[in-house]
Structures are given as structure tokens and as C-alpha cells.
User: Which sequence fits this backbone?
């Protein structure tokens, strides 16, 4: 084949650059994992390593010495198992209904839904609402708020558009109602897009910290990311004006292994799961352009 | 629903057989689709409870909020908060920072997704492609809380980057506490985290290009670079335009998550943006909910206007807007 000729020197160089870029992306994460197993002394000797010569678990012992992280895991998992199914049901049901042929108010409801993607009340009005509903400091605020996502709904809706109408029509002739048709016929056909949307929702729940920071003041109820943020955040803010360079340096490096152990504990589930489910994540972007 | 059914029957009774009134037809149609409305109900309840009710809260921007009186009974004060906003020099600093950082991102970060997609397309091995794509895209799925921790370790005074600088004879830097370096660090770390994921949409667009175009270019003896310039880029022009206009439309979003997690007291003023400012004046200093709401409203109003303009522009350029 002529193709062979195409693998030129330029192409090899490009491939090498692309592989290096991949290494540049992955290495910092790998380094964080290494640091989490390092002793303070080893870190000071050679932070830029590929293996740890004397791995220790002291950092992990320290972060699990109190229940902060376990409680964080508990909160996040609790929110995950309740919010994910709730969110899927709401999102898919809405996506299906709006994908059906024109019916009274469908256009108006669609527009009013998409409008919220581009305009919102903002942080304070939502905060006051949550307060007014009496949801402050309860998991319910995190579970209910954002349990319907317009972007995900549009993904689902676009998928349902691509299925033939004849499915619905023949079921209607057999006397099935819309809910039955949705649940028995369309849901099974929509498995790929539901998998994608479920993953998007799950990742969003796993990574959620901002709402929790606003609405949950009891540290015992903090989700994982907020627990981590407190540990990292204290570190980001250690450098202060007027400190001597040496002071800054010392403070910056202090307990880095504990911080990295916290990072590892928080990101590990995503890292382990991602390579296997990557396909489903990509589907979301390629299943169809996102349009209202 | 029962009410609707009754009304329909009533109408039928009054106007038998001949020309059913339009209203009756309409309500009959509503009734026929009752299960679809039921399917929409949870989402609608959510929208009313958390989106449209919050929009009512926007009135706060024109009121003097007293916690005891609540939103409804707090007195109106007109545009006083907006006047205060525009005469506050710090607000101007923050607005300027937001626009500067945002345009910097469009200039430096936006093209990276396209460049990666173009380079990616030149790689021949499918297996390598798949491995690389996993590496490129996974940081997108980690929060900025996690990633800022990783960055903190990597750019630490004793960390890997400084070790390399030291070995090359340079001077170690305190990266996170350097007013000059922090903005480039924001750009680079965001490229590092997001550009792989950003490239996917272009890779998908490139996959959709007709192969005959490349074969024709081969026959004409085109080099790889010429093929990119004359075939690939013109073919994905539409995708690039839509992505660019979307990005420009959200120019007042300068990256809250990243900046909030990577900021500290030294660099705070340099990278303080509207969103971090709103958060701070609401939840950290002596809170003034009405003023914060006014700043928030300013931001979402400009954002909304930008989206509308952008939609018009894409309609003109591509024949179809992003919102239709």
C-alpha cells in the first residue's frame, strides 16, 4: 500500500510530542500518588521520582486517624445513591416528553426550560430559597438542588428524536399510554445515552463542593470534596504577604504527604473507573450537537 | 385533569357534531397528552422551585434587604446598588480582571483543543490513539479541588518543577505566590486539565470529513500540512465557529472553580473575578445580600445579552443559531 510512505520523520516527531504531552498530563497525578507514600525526609531529597524507595503509610494513617474522611465518603455516597436515580428519572422523563411531537404548551415549556440554562437568579436568591425551604444544613438541599439538569435533558431528548415514531404509533394502537410507552419501549432503547447521562450526573455529584460549602455548615455532613478542600485550602492560603521566603517554603511543604494522601483518597474512584467507562463519557459529546 | 375532561364534554354537548369549537379541540388535545404532562411534572416542579422562584429573588437587587422582613417586605430602593457598584473602584478592578482573564483564555486556551485534535488525527496507531485519549481526557472529570492539590504539589517550592529549574541552573520560584506568574499558571493548568476533553468535539468533526477530499488532495501531491490547511480546517470551520461564539458568550465566566481553589492572599487582587468577588462579599465579609444580588444580576444580564448576540451571529454565519 501507498500508505507506508506516509509515515514520515515529521509524523514520528509529532507522535513523540503527543506521547510526551500525555506524560505531562499523567505524571503530576502519579507524582501526587508517590508523595502520599513518601516520608518528609525522602520528599526533601528527591521529589521528582518515579518510585518511592521507602514507602510509608503514615500519611494515610493520619488522615484516617479521625473520621473526617470516612464521614466525607459516607455523605458523598449517600447523596450519590439518592440523587442519581432521582435525577435520572426526572431528566429522562422530561427529555422523553419534550421529544414527542408537538402538543399543547410543548414549545413554551421547552423554551422556559432552556431559558434557565442562560439566565438564573444567582447565588444569593438560591441561597435564600434554600433557607426559606428549611433545607440549610441538610442533605436534602444537595440532593434536590440540581436534580434536574437541562444540558443532560437535551442529550436525552436529542437521542429520543432519532428513534422512529412508528414505535410509539403502533404501541398507541395497542392501547398503551405515554408513560407505559416511555418505560417499556423507549427506555430500553435509550440505554447508551442513559449510561452517558448517568455517568455525567455521578461525576458531578462526586465532584460537588460549592453548594455544600454554601448550605452545609456542619462538618460532619460535608461531602468528600469539601473535606479535601479544607485540607488543601488551608495549604493554598499559607503563603501570606510579609512572610520570609524560608517561612513560605517551609509552610508550603509541611504535611504535603498528608495533603496528597487526601487527594489520592478523593480521586481514586474516578481514576479507577474512568478508563473502563471512557466510551460512555465520549458518547455524550458525539451523540448529537447540543441544541435547545 | 378531570376538570379538563368535564369541560370538553360540556363543549361537545353544547355544539353537537358540527364544527367543534377550537377551544374544545385544544383541551381535547391537552387531555389526550395528559400522561406526557405527568412525565414533565417533576422537572417542572424543580424548575419552579429552584429556578423561577430564584428569579423572583432578583428583585432583591432593587431593594434594601432586611433579613427580618424577608424579600417581599424589604423596601424598594431603585438603582442605588447599581450606582454604588459603578462608583466602587474595586468593582472596576474585578470586572477588568474578569474580562482580561477571560479573553486571555480565549486567546491561549481555546485554540489548544483544535491543535490537539489536528495533531491527534495524524497519529496512525489506533491503539496509541485510544491510550492517549484516555490520558488527555481524564483530568476533565476531576474537580478543581483535587486538581489544585495536584498543582500545589507539582509547583511546590521543593517540588518537581522547581527541582528541574534548579538542576538547569535557574532560581526556584514560589509559583503560587507570584503575582506575575499566577495568570499564566491559570492558563497553563487549565489547558493541561481541559484541552484534551475540548479536543473531542473537533476530533468527532474531523472523523466526519469525507475521505475522498483527502484522496483528491493526495493525487494533487499535497503535503500533510497543506491537507490540514486546505481540507481539515475548512471542513471543521462550522464547529470551530460555534464553539468560539459559545465561549465568547460566556465571557464573564472566567473560571470560578479554578481561581477559587488556587487563590491565596498574595495573588488575590490579581485574579479576583466577579464570581469570587460575589462569593466574598456575600459569605465572608459583612454580608449585604441586596448588593451581592445586584452584582450577580449585572453578571447574568450581561451574560444573557452576550448569548443572544452570539446566537444572532451564528445565525448569520451558519444559517442556524445555537438556540434553535
Assistant:
Amino acid at each position: 500500500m501507498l500508505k507506508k510512505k506516509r509515515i514520515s520523520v515529521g509524523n514520528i516527531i509529532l507522535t513523540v510530542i503527543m506521547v510526551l504531552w500525555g506524560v505531562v498530563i499523567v505524571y503530576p497525578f502519579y507524582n501526587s500518588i508517590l508523595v502520599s507514600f513518601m516520608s518528609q525526609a525522602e520528599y526533601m531529597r528527591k521529589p521528582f521520582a518515579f518510585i518511592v524507595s521507602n514507602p510509608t503509610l503514615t500519611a494515610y494513617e493520619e488522615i484516617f486517624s479521625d473520621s473526617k474522611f470516612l464521614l466525607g465518603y459516607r455523605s458523598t455516597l449517600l447523596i450519590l445513591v439518592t440523587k442519581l436515580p432521582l435525577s435520572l428519572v426526572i431528566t429522562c422523563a422530561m427529555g422523553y416528553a419534550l421529544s414527542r411531537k408537538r402538543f399543547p404548551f410543548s414549545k413554551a415549556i421547552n423554551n422556559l426550560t432552556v431559558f434557565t440554562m442562560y439566565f438564573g437568579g444567582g447565588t444569593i436568591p438560591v441561597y435564600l430559597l434554600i433557607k426559606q425551604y428549611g433545607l440549610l444544613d441538610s442533605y436534602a438541599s444537595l440532593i434536590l438542588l440540581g436534580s434536574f439538569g437541562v444540558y443532560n435533558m437535551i442529550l436525552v431528548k436529542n437521542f429520543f428524536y432519532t428513534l422512529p415514531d412508528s414505535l410509539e404509533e403502533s404501541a398507541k394502537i395497542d392501547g398503551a399510554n405515554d408513560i407505559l410507552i416511555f418505560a417499556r419501549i423507549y427506555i430500553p432503547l435509550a440505554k447508551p445515552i442513559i449510561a452517558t447521562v448517568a455517568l455525567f450526573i455521578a461525576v458531578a455529584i462526586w465532584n460537588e463542593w460549592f453548594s455544600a460549602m454554601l448550605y452545609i455548615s456542619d462538618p460532619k455532613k460535608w461531602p468528600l470534596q469539601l473535606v479535601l478542600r479544607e485540607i488543601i485550602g488551608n495549604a493554598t492560603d499559607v503563603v501570606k504577604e510579609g512572610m520570609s521566603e524560608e517561612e513560605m517554603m517551609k509552610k508550603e511543604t509541611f504535611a504535603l504527604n498528608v495533603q496528597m494522601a487526601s487527594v489520592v483518597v478523593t480521586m481514586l474512584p474516578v481514576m479507577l473507573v474512568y478508563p473502563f467507562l471512557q466510551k460512555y463519557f465520549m458518547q455524550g459529546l458525539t451523540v448529537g450537537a447540543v441544541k435547545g | 385533569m378531570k376538570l379538563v375532561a368535564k369541560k370538553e364534554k360540556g363543549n361537545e354537548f353544547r355544539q353537537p357534531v358540527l364544527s367543534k369549537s377550537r377551544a374544545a379541540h385544544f383541551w381535547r388535545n391537552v387531555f389526550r397528552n395528559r400522561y406526557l404532562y405527568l412525565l414533565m411534572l417533576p422537572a417542572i416542579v424543580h424548575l419552579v422551585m429552584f429556578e423561577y422562584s430564584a428569579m423572583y429573588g432578583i428583585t432583591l437587587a432593587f431593594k434594601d434587604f432586611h433579613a427580618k422582613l424577608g424579600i417581599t417586605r424589604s423596601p424598594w430602593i431603585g438603582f442605588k446598588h447599581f450606582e454604588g457598584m459603578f462608583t466602587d473602584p474595586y468593582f472596576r478592578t474585578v470586572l477588568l480582571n474578569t474580562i482580561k482573564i477571560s479573553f486571555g483564555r480565549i486567546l491561549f486556551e481555546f485554540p489548544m483543543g483544535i491543535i490537539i485534535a489536528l495533531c491527534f488525527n495524524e497519529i496512525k496507531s489506533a491503539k496509541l490513539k485510544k491510550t492517549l485519549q484516555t490520558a488527555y481526557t481524564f483530568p476533565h472529570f476531576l474537580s478543581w479541588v483535587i486538581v489544585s492539590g495536584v498543582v500545589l504539589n507539582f509547583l511546590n517550592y521543593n517540588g518537581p518543577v522547581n527541582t528541574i529549574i534548579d538542576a538547569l541552573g535557574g532560581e526556584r520560584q514560589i509559583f503560587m505566590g507570584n503575582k506575575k506568574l499566577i495568570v499564566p499558571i491559570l492558563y497553563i493548568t487549565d489547558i493541561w486539565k481541559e484541552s484534551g476533553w475540548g479536543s473531542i468535539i473537533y476530533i468527532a468533526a474531523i472523523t466526519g470529513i469525507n475521505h475522498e477530499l483527502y484522496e483528491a488532495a493526495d493525487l494533487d501531491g499535497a503535503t500533510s500540512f497543506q491537507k490540514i490547511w486546505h481540507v481539515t480546517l475548512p471542513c471543521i470551520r462550522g464547529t470551530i465557529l460555534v464553539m468560539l461564539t459559545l465561549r465568547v458568550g460566556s465571557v464573564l465566566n472566567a473560571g470560578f472553580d479554578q481561581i477559587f481553589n488556587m487563590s491565596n492572599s498574595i495573588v488575590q487582587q490579581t485574579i479576583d473575578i466577579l464570581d469570587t468577588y460575589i462569593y466574598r462579599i456575600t459569605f465572608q465579609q459583612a454580608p449585604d445580600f441586596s448588593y451581592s444580588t445586584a452584582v450577580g444580576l449585572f453578571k447574568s444580564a450581561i451574560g444573557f445579552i452576550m448569548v443572544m448576540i452570539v446566537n444572532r451571529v451564528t445565525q448569520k454565519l451558519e444559517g442556524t443559531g445555537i438556540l434553535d
